[in-house]
């Protein structure tokens, strides 16, 4: 059985990713590693810290010790820590937002990136620009924070969160050719955005689709014939 470890920095990403894995990789066993202090520490510092990066490495090393087939990083705020971890462990690691960034760069040259916390916005913008460079695409990025949305979500007011984010998306859509939702927690809004004039991309589906492609490309382990 395929085993996937998913490293989360809070509980809000667990269910959306679980639903996508259930749909796209239904036979997989999923191990969720959740530490909600990671995002809190990043937000308090205003950026990814060496201490948080060290803990990400520790969690992914533990996942490797559990002999999982692949690891999914579920949080864009700590995504840059994964770049160094990939050099330290042999288990393949997929970042939830890489496929989304690549898709955005393939769609348009003016990309809007929207987030509810600054510590996710900035690394997502850097990721989009990095992918554009790799694809040799010239892009312009417009950044937007949906002020107050994340606090509303933490307080349990999901409706207020959605209202703030949808308003920010509507305003940004008038300025760009494609919009990237920087956080997994925002993905649930996509079905409500059919009237938006530009494509709006979220990471759970494209990220899990990339996870499935990576699994499909892993070397197959042959099972010895016991009858020989």
Automatic annotation (TrEMBL):
Transmembrane segments: none annotated. GO terms for molecular function: amino-acid racemase activity. Belongs to the HyuE racemase family. This is Asp/Glu/Hydantoin racemase.
């Amino acid at each position: 059985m395929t085993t996937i470890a998913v490293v989360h920095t809070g509980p809000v990403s667990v269910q959306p990713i679980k639903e996508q894995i259930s749909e796209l990789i239904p036979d997989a066993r999923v191990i969720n590693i959740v530490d909600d202090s990671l995002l809190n520490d990043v937000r308090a510092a205003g950026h990814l810290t060496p201490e948080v990066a060290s803990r990400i490495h520790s969690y992914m090393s533990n996942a490797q010790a559990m002999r999982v087939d692949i690891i999914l990083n579920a949080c864009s705020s700590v995504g840059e820590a994964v770049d160094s971890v990939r050099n330290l462990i042999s288990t393949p690691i997929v970042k939830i937002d890489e496929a989304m960034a690549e898709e955005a760069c393939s769609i348009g040259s003016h990309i809007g990136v929207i987030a509810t916390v600054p510590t996710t916005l900035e690394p997502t913008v850097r990721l989009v620009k990095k992918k554009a460079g790799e694809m040799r695409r010239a892009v312009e990025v417009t950044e937007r924070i949906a002020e107050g949305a994340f606090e509303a979500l933490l307080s349990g007011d999901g409706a207020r969160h959605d209202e703030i984010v949808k308003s920010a998306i509507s305003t940004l859509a008038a300025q760009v050719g494609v919009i990237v939702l920087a956080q997994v927690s925002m993905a649930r809004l996509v079905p409500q955005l059919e009237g938006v004039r530009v494509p709006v991309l979220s990471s759970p589906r494209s990220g899990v689709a990339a996870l499935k492609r990576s699994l499909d490309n892993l070397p197959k382990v042959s099972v010895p014939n016991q009858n020989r």
